[in-house]
Amino acid sequence: MGASGLGSALAKCINLSNLTLNLWSNQIGAMGALGLGSALEKCINLSNLTLNLYQNKIGDEGASGLGSALAKCINLSNLTLNLGGNQIGAMGASGLGSALAKCINLSNLTLNLRNQIGDEGASGLGSALAKCINLSNLTLYLDRNQIGDEGASGLGSALAKCINLSNLTLDLDKNRIGDKGASGLGSALANCINLSKLTLGLFLNQIGDEDASGLGSALANCTNISILKLFLSQIQISDQGASGLGSALANCINLSNLTLELSKNQIGDKAASGLCAAFANCIKLQNLELSLSNNQIGDEGASGLGSALANCTKLSNLILDLCKNQIGAMGASGLGSALSKCTNLSNLTLYLQQKEFICF
């Protein structure tokens, strides 16, 4: 009665175009979500909606029904929908996506579905969203959803059909992606021909060297990407994977901003240096944030890494995290001497806390 009644009252605001509604951690349930949606669909002038229903136990029925109702908001162009922690499974995710696909004017969508949607739900959601022909900015939070290789590849293949997509944030942290999932996802996203900004979170999956290299090679085909953020910590990457990833990213010819999170892997001296040497081929790279904390980098790697970065001739902003490696006084000095040759560097943040103190 509470959520439905609130919606019914708001539906009488005939000129309402912008609405933010925070109802997280209540006890709305499926019926409340359905009632709220039915009321909101009467807001015929609504163009911008932020709806937070986090932890309300709305389930599959509530998610699908809410989506169907919102699809009738024919002027909706910007939608932020937080449905995390709501016991939504594959059926609910697919139903929600199918409904939102009918929002023909939707151009900006942020969707939090931290539930248990699995492979089927991820693929179904992607296939449905591919029909949002005007979608240009998409943020999907799908972490902790038991998504495996099949779901990751299927999701990517579907999103590749979003022909106008230019900005994509895809959080797939803490799922079950391994083997060919990362490569399949990357290969699919490479077909997003208008993609210029990509943020991809794959933290704590089971990707490893081969798929890390494959992911990089695939993303290198996204020729229009200028801003790339990759979160690949704790995915079992060693020297081979880091080198392959770097070599692949070197082919991103339009890359100007790169954030690369590779902490808590198994990357050593040679790979760290090689990774940064590859960045020198990114001739437009100006802003770099690189985290290699908790790896196996020593003095040689730190010095080599710095020397390699000195070849990034346009680099102006650098954040470098080398905490908790095996870098001593010699490595720290070598790193500093090398970075002093970055002639265009104007802003530097350097994290060097080690497992043991650096003694000069």
TrEMBL record:
GO molecular function: GTPase activator activity; small GTPase binding
Keyword Repeat on entry: yes
Superkingdom assignment: Eukaryota
Stored SMART domains: LRR_RI (SM00368)
Annotated InterPro entries: Leu-rich_rpt, LRR_dom_sf, RanGap
Gene3D superfamilies for the chain: Ribonuclease Inhibitor
Keywords: GTPase activation, Leucine-rich repeat, Repeat
GO biological process per UniProt: nucleocytoplasmic transport
Gene Ontology CC terms: cytosol; nucleus; perinuclear region of cytoplasm
PANTHER family the record matches: RAN GTPASE-ACTIVATING PROTEIN 1
Protein name: Cyclic nucleotide-binding domain protein
Organism whose genome encodes this protein: Tetrahymena thermophila (strain SB210)
